[in-house]
Each structure stands twice: as C-alpha cells, then as structure tokens.
Design brief:
By secondary structure, the chain is mainly α. Helix content is 67%, strand content 4%. The protein has five helices and two strands; from the N terminus they run H-H-H-H-H-E-E. The protein has helices at 3-27, 39-44, 52-71, 77-107, 118-145; strands at 153-155, 161-163. A two-stranded antiparallel sheet has the order 1-2. Strand 1 and strand 2 (161-163) form a beta hairpin. Helix 1 runs antiparallel to helix 3 (52-71), helix 1 runs antiparallel to helix 5 and helix 4 (77-107) packs antiparallel against helix 5. The longest helix has 31 residues, at 77-107. The chain is globular, with a radius of gyration of 19 Å.
Length: 164
C-alpha cells in the first residue's frame, strides 16, 4: 500500500479514536466539552453515563479495525471491506447531513420550533459531526485508493495482478 493510502486510513483511525476517547472520558465523569453535546443529551444521560462505555468501545473498534485489517491484507476481504464501505458511507451521510443542518441552524436559515441549544449546536456543527464526516471520508478515500489491490501484488494496467 502506498504511503498516501495509509495516510488516509490513519486519519480515519485518528478521527474515530478522538470520538471514542471523548465518549470514554465522559463515561468516567469528565465534563470538558460535555456542553457541546447539547443540554437535552446531557440531561437525559446525566445518571447513565455508563452507557458511554460500550459506545466508546464500539467507536474505538470501528476506528482501529480497518487499520488492523489492512495491515493483515483484509482477511475475509469481501466481508471486511464491505463492512468498511458501509461504515464509511454511514459516517459520511450522518456527519455530512448533520454538519450542514447544524450550520444552517446557526446561520438562521433553519429556525427550529422552540429554539435551540447554542453550545450544543456549535458542538455538533463545528466539532462532532464534521469529525464523523472526516472519519468517513478518509476511510472511503482509502478504500477507493486500494480497490482491487491485495497483499503481495498490485494491479497491472490491464486489470490483472502482477507481483509487487
């Protein structure tokens, strides 16, 4: 794999790891940037922060698994890369839509009934949802850039395999 392709995968892993680390940090009682989630979320889960432990663990596995799988040549290739494609697409759609909607709310183009929680909206529009978007885009760029490649070989100009 080229250094550029590896760089996209590392960026995806870092973006996902940041998400995971904050979830685990909040699960153990940390408060820094908690208001960026939104008052409703913070209030709803105030006595159930433990829920963020499995959320954080799932995020860390989802962030690091593609890097680990790639280093091993994507065992069970159709399944593992298929799941990576699905995960990347979900992250791009979720992060992209929520980033755009959040920006439109902050700009006043969308006015939610009953107003909105400004720190929470800023957190989602400028931090958490763009981070989902970066995570997904970086993963998809890596997957596109390594399509058809398998460990030990590269694609020849006519689509066949040749030794690396």
């Amino acid at each position: 794999m080229t250094g550029r392709a590896r760089g996209w995968l590392v960026l995806a892993a870092l973006a996902g790891a940041v998400h995971a680390i904050f979830s685990l940090y909040w699960a153990i009682g940390g408060d820094w940037l908690l208001e960026t989630l939104g008052e409703r979320i913070v209030t709803t889960f105030a006595d159930m922060r433990w829920v963020l432990v499995p959320v954080g663990l799932i995020k860390i596995v989802a962030a690091l698994a593609p890097l680990w799988l790639d280093r091993r040549g994507w065992p069970l290739r159709p399944l593992t890369r298929g799941l990576a494609w699905l995960g990347g697409a979900v992250l791009v759609v979720w992060g992209g839509l929520n980033t755009v909607v959040g920006q439109l709310v902050l700009a006043g183009a969308i006015r939610p009934d009953g107003g909105y929680d400004r720190p929470g909206m800023i957190g989602h529009a400028w931090l958490w949802d763009p981070l989902f978007l970066v995570w997904g885009l970086a993963l998809l760029v890596h997957l596109v850039g390594t399509r058809g490649r398998r460990e030990g070989g590269t694609r020849s100009p006519v689509g066949g395999r040749r030794p690396a």
